[in-house]
From TrEMBL:
It holds the Pfam family HTH_DNAJC9. The gene is Dnajc9. GO terms for cellular component: cytoplasm; nucleus. Residues 60-126 form the DNAJC9 HTH domain. It comes from the Eukaryota. This is DNJC9 protein. GO terms for molecular function: heat shock protein binding. It comes from Calyptomena viridis (Lesser green broadbill). Residues 126-152 are annotated as: Disordered.
């Protein structure tokens, strides 16, 4: 909703001019009051499928962009492989030997400094990271199977299902508040009226 409002303001010439000049937004404008299904709108603009993600992974791995990201992560996290593996896009535990080799080559060529955390990392820490990643992969597969995911439009279906679940939870929450405080407000009104009669 917030992104939708930002887009609505910036794509409307008058609203944008007001924002550029004053730094404020007219909350009562018709542009912001339009009832639009933003999820559907953004999906029309950015249609993303599982195949798109897989194609991106193929083009990203072993690319100059990945190498630059690995080097940046190595410098940023001072050679901590746990954090490097978490931050590099599309990387899982099976990519670690390849990523480690990229870093080692860059250290040998003098492009990267030799950090103790990387060079002297213990086998125990490596194995712990691998076990953790394998456990997460099993849990992800189990969740995927439970949700019945696997096809092209499953990601979209899952997002819509989660959105509906959140709406239902919010409705339940509001109903509970209404039941709890709505009745109290009526009772409170009666007590006040009774007090007035006494005085």
């Amino acid at each position: 909703q917030i992104l939708g409002k930002v887009y609505a303001v910036l794509s409307d010439a008058k609203q944008r001019a007001v924002y550029d000049e004053t730094g404020t937004v007219d909350e009562d404008s018709e542009v912001l009051r339009e009832d639009r299904d933003w999820l559907e709108y953004w999906q029309l603009l950015f249609k993303l499928t599982v195949k798109d993600i897989e194609d991106f992974q193929k083009s990203y791995k072993n690319s100059a962009e990945e190498l630059a990201d690995v080097k940046a992560a190595y410098l940023n996290f001072k050679g901590d492989m746990d954090r490097i593996m978490e931050s590099v896009m599309c990387a899982d535990y099976t990519d670690e030997p390849r990523i480690r080799e990229m870093i080692e080559r860059a250290i040998e060529s003098g492009e990267l400094p030799s950090y103790k955390a990387f060079v002297q990392e213990s086998k125990k820490k490596m194995m712990s990271r691998r076990r953790r990643a394998e456990k997460e992969a099993k849990e992800a597969k189990k969740t995927k199977d439970e949700l019945g995911l696997g096809g092209e439009n499953d990601l979209q279906a899952l997002i819509q299902r989660r959105s509906k679940d959140r709406e239902r939870e919010m409705d339940d929450f509001l109903a509970q508040l209404e039941a709890k405080y709505g009745n109290n407000a009526k009772k409170g009104g009666k007590k006040t009226a009774a007090k007035k009669r006494k005085t």
